[in-house]
Amino acid sequence: MTRTLAITRRVLGQLRRDHRTLALVMIVPALTMLLIGTLVRNAAVQPAIAVAGPPASVARLTVALDVLAGADAIVAQSADEVARLVDDGDVAAGFVLSETGGVELVLDGTVPGIGQRLGRVALAAGLLSAADPDPAELAAAQPAISWVRGEGGFETIDAAAPAMIAFFSLFFVFLLTSVSFLRERTGGTLERIMATPARRRELVGGYVLGFGVLALVQGAIITGVAVWGLGIRHEGPIAAAFPLVALISLVSVVLGIFLSAFSRTELQAIQFIPIVITPQALLSGVVWPIESLPGWLQPIAHGLPLTYGVDALERVLLRGEGLLSMGPLVDALALLAFASAFAALAIASIRREVA
Q1: pTM greater than 0.85
Q2: Per DSSP, which regions of the chain are E strands?
């Protein structure tokens, strides 16, 4: 018993001197719980639905949508405008009404379950919007559905796949790079290389290329399992996803190299996961859409690299946009900017430790 207590005192003494571990144990869980609680409490957003048709019917339907679906109605001038609003993602769905009470439901099939959620609302909308409806006839009818993409509707796994690919590419590559580069530091390999004429940027570039090869293989495996293993549906070509996964992996490699400078043990390197990775998982569109976050968290979300990786993959795989389209191109440039900034910080961190 005495030896057990002595070992206990030794462990507690080591923890007391390890301020980073104490902060991880005491502060990070509390902050994470506060963040998750804030998101769960405030992440609900009232959906918007586009409506076009006779003015009197639209007015009645606007009230019906608020009561039946808790949705705001955006009045469109035509069926084409409704389709455009749905296609751009400005609204969750659209209703096109006719004079006789017929209802056409305009949907984005990449939003899972949207048809089932709004099907009954569409039937009720027909009853409420018709000038002289026949309840028996309308109750037996099924609303006409047109799809701007994803005909028939995507499953939840299909819609979640781009965010999953982006997150796991960032997470596993960061873990691989930070721990491996730490071993290079603690094992003396880095100091031996620095004794050669190699410059620091050349050193970082060499490690980025080396770890990058493994990161690309890992990213390809993650993407391949999602597409061919899980059989997810996608609107855009899967080949367009690989350059984006490569950019996400590049950001993760240089971020891992940079943050490894602040670790002395593998445990300390792993401790960066709840500090660096968890906030990105919560705020970058992996769990909740960016637009559903509280207003004060949205600027923080737009300052995280994973946000742009998730958005780019969703645009390419779900919306079918090309890599050179404005949205994916801007996201790719943002990822390159993050990679450049982290690479500069990685070079500076080596200078502080070795010089």
Answers
A1: no
A2: 48-52, 72-75, 93-97, 103-108, 144-149
